[in-house]
Write a structure and sequence with these properties.
Layout lengths: L1 H24 L3 H27 L17 H27 L2 H19 L12 H23 L5 H47 L1
Helix pairs in contact: 2-3, 2-4, 3-5, 4-5, 4-6, 5-6
């Protein structure tokens, strides 16, 4: 049992180091900044164009993509009924195609962004590296959520409980992992800020 634990720890450490090396190769400031800008341009396009266009048919009901705590079959039925044929078509042909680009950008960009700040703290090759998986998990869950929504839109009004529950599960995973990522990012930025202030104070004292 003890030997198995050691072997598992060694394997985990090797996997972490491999992952850290991949991240380290791709965290130049320019690359991270470029991806950050591109990701947020796509996000703003959804926020200002495709989501409002779709919600114009929803009578104030939030789209499934916007419900991080989940939904049930009754809500999906009511939303799709309220959207009507035109709204469901716009959801399918306007919002979702853009949202098939965003998860890839989100996962890639924010994983590298977190790695960039971890490197500044000299924590990239530590257990904190696994935090960089959170945006990737969120991105994968977002894709699965989108596939579920597309399936439901195409099969409406014949929605199955299995499809709704599966899609809802991925929505919750996406919401949870995204929230955990942003909490981790804020904490790391606070630590980095404190470190920066302390370094500057020490440098100032040395000058005097």
């Amino acid at each position: 049992m003890f030997l198995e634990q050691i072997l598992l720890n060694q394997k985990s450490r090797k996997t972490m180091n491999r992952f850290a090396k991949i991240l380290e190769k791709n965290i130049s400031g320019k690359k991270v900044l470029g991806l950050f800008i591109l990701t947020n341009v796509v996000y703003l396009f959804m926020l200002m164009v495709t989501i409002p266009k779709t919600m114009g048919f929803s009578n104030g009901m939030k789209l499934l993509d916007m419900l991080p705590t989940g939904y049930n079959q009754d809500y999906v039925n009511e939303l799709f009924r309220t959207l009507g044929e035109n709204g469901r078509e716009i959801y399918l042909t306007n919002q979702l195609p853009v949202d098939m680009i965003y998860p890839l950008l989100f996962g890639l960009t924010y994983s590298l962004l977190l790695a960039y700040f971890l490197k500044k703290l000299n924590k990239l090759k530590s257990l904190f590296t696994y935090l960089c998986l959170l945006p990737i998990i969120a991105g994968i869950a977002d894709y699965m959520e989108n596939i579920g929504i597309i399936t439901m839109l195409n099969s409406y009004p014949d929605l199955t409980e299995i499809t709704v529950n599966a899609t809802n599960t991925f929505s919750v995973i996406k919401g949870t992992s995204t929230s955990m990522f942003f909490i981790a990012l804020i904490v790391i930025l606070i630590i980095l800020g404190i470190k920066y202030v302390k370094t500057n104070k020490t440098s100032g004292n040395n000058v005097w």
